[in-house]
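Hi there,

I know you've been waiting on this one. I reran it after we fixed the sequence typo, so this is the corrected version. Both the input and the resulting structure follow.
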Amino acid sequence: MRNKVLIVSTYAGIPRVRKFAQTLSPKYDVTIYEWDRNNELSKYEILDGVKIVRFCKKAPVGLGLARLYPSWAFSLIWFSLRYRFDIIIPQNLDTLYPTWLIAKLRRVKVLYDIADFFSEAYIPSKFVSLRRIAAWIERFLIRRVDATIIVDPARLEQLGNVENKPIVVIYNSPTDRPDLAKDKLHIEKEGLFNIFYGGIISPDR
């Protein structure tokens, strides 16, 4: 029997989560539990052999989300206790805390995937105290998971002192596209210097 893996995200359709699931699915029984914040997707779906279960509840963007977080966390804990998993991969701090509680109850392995260090990516810089508290909580929990995944080595500075804890770098790179061969791409060798930024653009970034 194959080990069961649960990947958790508070957003639906995150490409990094889907790539994780598709990579693991040939050897593991993979389920994604995600929050459909627009409440417009089906509650259950199978995509490329991966089971997707959704918490369907419309939610605002920003700090207004905090009032709905307890119901999300409870649903995740209930789902994880009802369907036992061997490994849980939470993405970012908002999924790590309930996952850590599940791990204590079920003694499952937790591989923490940091796509973004929560305090710096999601809490506005004007909330200095709140940022410090979130950073302390995230670093505290990182020391208590089985391993941590980061998207590039530069993130090590954000983690602080996590001695004796495995840290793995898995770049959040696009899927290979053999159809986009170099001879089909027009690349300027002279002229303006172009910079590409992929991700959310906000004042804090």
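Quick highlight: The chain has a mean pLDDT of 83.

Best,
R. S.
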